[in-house]
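Hi X.,

You mentioned you wanted examples for the new student's onboarding notes, showing what a folding record looks like when two proteins sit in one file. Here is a clean example. The first protein comes first, with its sequence line followed by its structure tokens.
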Amino acid sequence: MENKIKWGVIGSGVIARRRTIPEGITKAENAKLVAVFDINPEANKAVATEFNAVPVDSIQNLINSDVDAIYIASPANMHLEQAIACAKGKKHVLCEKPLALSLADVDAIAAAATRWDKVVSEAFVYRSHPQALKVKQLIDSGALGKIKIVRGSFTYPDTSPDNYRLKPEMGGGGLWDVGCYPINYMRTMLGLEPDEVFGWQVIGPTGVDEVFAAQMHFPGDVFAQFDCSTVIPYHVFMEFIGDMATLVIPNPFIPGPNRSLYLVRNGKTKTIFVKGPDTYISEVENIADAILFGQTPAVSMVDSRHNIAAILALFESAKTGKPVRL
């Protein structure tokens, strides 16, 4: 294998273009985009032309092509079959969140990755970015003191009638689509797993949660709250409140090349500037390094399993109206 990972993309149309993973692949030092597939031939051809890749006409032909890794950008209910097919076809996988819609599916994907010795990782783009690493360093260093409360939000409006995120059977709704981000961010930065959760949801006309509000309790009496929605205007932040200081992250989930963090102590705010690459480059390079050098990817299968367990527990809580222990 050469020093650049050759990538293919499943779902090269609207999802892949909006997520800009193809652009991240083309800009990464250790990657290049080779082939793309989408069920819409016109969208597939357009992406292929834009990024100088080869359009292929089926997932199997993409798997059979000369690529080392495949980015899966299809709806969540397709991830299980596609991730396993890619691993079986000796391709490494970067799969959009959520990785799967059940713990059994996560376990099946993990088993396939182990059986065929392939890197499979869930695509939380912020995890390998310098901004997230700086946030983690500040929290772990004790700059905030003991963390007491964590708050977050991820909302955006997307109600187009053909949007698969409005379909329950395809993993639609706010919690699966964007609520997974604050859950993952909290778990990652605290280095802890929630032991009890409680959730409320507002179900829309198609049967998915349009608005979800959640509370999570972490060991050491750390209390966390977040909201997510696919109907509320764009609103994103994370906030970690310690007994010495508060850290505010205005753009936690899609960090970008130049962002600011705000450390508030004794009523005074210190701005911390963080330089980094374009949002998706570090994610692509992280997976390529895992493939080329055997490094652990930023998001492990165990990590993904914990995140999905928390999501499922929150859905159970919202349905029953009771707290759920993990």
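Then the second protein repeats the pattern, sequence line and then tokens:
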Amino acid sequence: MIAVTGAAGLVGGNLVRALLAQGRSVRALVHHDRRALAGLDVETVPADLTDPVSLQKALRGADTVYHLASTISISTGNWEELERVNVIGTRNVIEACLHNNVRRMLYFGSIHAYQQNPFDQPLDEDRPLLTGEHIPPYERSKALAEMEARQAPDRGLDTVILIPSAIVGPFDFRPSYFGAALQLLAKGRIPALVRGGYDWVDVRDVVEGAIQAERLAPRGGRYILSGHWQSIQDVARVTAEITGRPAPRFTIPIWLAQLAQPIMAKLAQVNGSQPIYTRPMLNAMNSNPHISHVRAARELGYSPRPFQQTIADTLDWFSHQRGAHHHE
């Protein structure tokens, strides 16, 4: 039996579907939102990363645990919550795995936990984690959480670490920040683009890489699961080609977007929308454009699909969701 924390998120919803397609039995640990799991043949159990007792109960009888759950933060003032969920929460999951004699844990980290410079060299698994007080809270929490996962094998838990880049794809029920932005872009509701880009990866490729790692990775193995670097302009162009709606004409430099960011966040609060250019999103656009998945390709047969296909499938999924809502 496979237990998945954060099963109702973008990666979780896709991972659970892929595991079920292999005929495996899945227990989904959920906090509040269960939409991503509706209609699936899974056992769902309530669990809270900050409550060790609930985790020990939820992981009873699990052979393998995929630990996906974390808090993604768009503000800079909530270190306590990030530390409680991402760092101490990961420690609690490790304790619960040890308590229940789990065979293997697969921990999902973040590329933003790694030092991005030097920019002229590919970022790979040997790049140091970010350390120090000056690091933004989300990045810092993911770096500390990954340190917990790296120490787990010494404590007797076979652990493998997976490090995806910016994830995008279907079954994005919440939706993710990028999913929300992509929908706005498709509807022609984004006034200006920002200069910059990300390494984007299809959630289905991340899931496939993770399942391969569960089977093939050595104890303590660490794999970057990245895709393709594309600028925000590339994303807008591909989206325009798919929707037939012209891309935004204006592009502003990141520093200007960063200056405007507090105003945008306030406006979003007032009209109840998601702020599109959040501070972490803008910081991430300054990340290393050369993120290497050579190790995953070599050891796991990892091969991410074309970016255009990902955007087309994601937009298609969102439009079917909207259609489904209209018919209800």
